[in-house]
Specification:
- The two termini are 30 Å apart.
- The protein is 73% helix and 0% strand.
- The protein is built from 18 helices and no strands.
- With 368 residues, the chain is an all-alpha fold.
- The radius of gyration is 20 Å and the shape is globular.
Length: 368
């Protein structure tokens, strides 16, 4: 179905969200004072979070299920307690928020704001290594609409993403706390533990055989964590949610082509890394390895659906990765990459809107 032509006002609305958020991001990037930077970063967050949080239950394939769950946690509700079917951390969060906010749609708004704060603030933290405004463009075209659908997993992804700055400062205990918190929102987030050995592999001066052992552990855990989860009694729960999300998301827009593109970009980035073309060599190695692992896991999702969704915890960093590539030291090549990425991601955005891949068309605002 051609949703863009059927719902032109929704298309215009989503286009305006992108333009406005990019404008605010560009001003934040160019601002000289901390006060102005904070103001415009906040405006970026609000320009993305408010449309997501104020959407009607019909916008997003799973929004209605979350609204129903939020409503079931309210005082005086008589019926099935849908909110108790989620992980304990998320159930507790729902209960607290509905107690304070009263309205299920306001709970959705709060979670949307929180998710976008964690993501945008992290991108701003790494602004010296990437183009902040371009990272917002990538987030919007690649992942933003998925937050309309798999809300809970993206909150978990955002928590780990935000915790990454502590990991890079080698504050592993703090980062582990973020992973455990994210796991209480969505159990699949436990895979975020692999960020730690990846960072150790990059930063520590280890013997070659030790690096091979760590790399072997990372890949083994990533591919065979099903058996580990089965041993501790979590596999059935994971498979239940992941299979459900894969089935509901309907992501079938020529994914094989995009995986080939991703692999090609990673291979090219290794060449740039070898030539010392990135601003921060060590940080770049870390991000490239995360994207390589995420791409492998997501590709293996063709065979094992579970690993495909798990890969998002690593692949989400391609927002940083691609934004770094357009700031490499070879300026003509950086400009060429920027043009290619813009064209590719506008094509992805067009397909997302035209096929309403996450159920985001038509857009309707919640009014109560």
């Amino acid at each position: 179905m051609n949703y863009i032509f059927i719902y032109p006002y929704s298309t215009l609305f989503y286009s305006l969200i992108m333009i406005i958020s990019l404008f605010f991001a560009f001003i934040a990037q160019k601002s000289k004072t901390t006060k102005m930077q904070r103001i415009f970063v906040a405006l970026v967050i609000l320009s993305l979070a408010l449309p997501a949080g104020l959407r009607d239950s019909s916008v997003g394939k799973d929004t209605w299920a979350y609204i129903r769950a939020f409503q079931s946690a309210s005082a005086g509700y008589q019926g099935e307690l849908f909110y108790t079917y989620y992980e304990n951390g998320f159930s507790l969060l729902i209960k607290i928020l509905i107690m304070i906010l009263k309205e299920p749609y306001y709970v959705n708004l709060f979670i949307s704001i929180l998710t976008n704060i964690l993501i945008i603030k992290t991108l701003w933290t790494f602004r010296n290594n990437l183009s902040f405004s371009f990272s917002i463009f990538l987030y919007y075209t690649l992942y933003y609409f998925e937050t309309y659908n798999i809300l809970r997993q993206y909150l978990a992804i955002a928590i780990i993403f935000f915790g990454m700055k502590f990991l890079l400062d080698q504050k592993y205990v703090i980062f582990l706390a973020f992973v455990l918190l994210a796991s209480s929102i969505h159990r699949s987030a436990i895979i975020g533990i692999l960020y730690i050995p990846i960072d150790i592999l990059i930063k520590k001066k280890l013997l070659y055989r030790h690096k091979i052992l760590i790399l072997f552990f990372i890949l083994s855990f990533a591919f065979f964590h099903n058996y580990v989860l089965d041993a501790i009694g979590l596999k059935s729960v994971f498979n239940k949610y992941i299979t459900y999300y894969i089935h509901k998301s309907g992501i079938n827009v020529n994914l094989g082509f995009f995986f080939v593109v991703r692999l090609a970009i990673i291979i090219f980035s290794l060449y740039v890394l070898r030539k010392k073309g990135f601003i921060d060599y060590e940080f770049s190695k870390f991000i490239i390895l995360l994207n390589l692992l995420g791409t492998i896991l997501t590709m293996s999702g063709y065979i094992y659906t579970f690993t495909g969704r798990i890969g998002t915890y690593f692949l989400f960093n391609e927002i940083i990765f691609w934004s770094m590539l357009i700031k490499i030291k070879d300026k003509p090549l950086a400009l060429l990459l920027k043009i290619v990425f813009v064209m590719l991601n506008l094509f992805i955005l067009f397909n997302n809107l035209n096929g309403s891949t996450q159920g985001q068309m038509p857009y309707k605002i919640f009014l109560r």
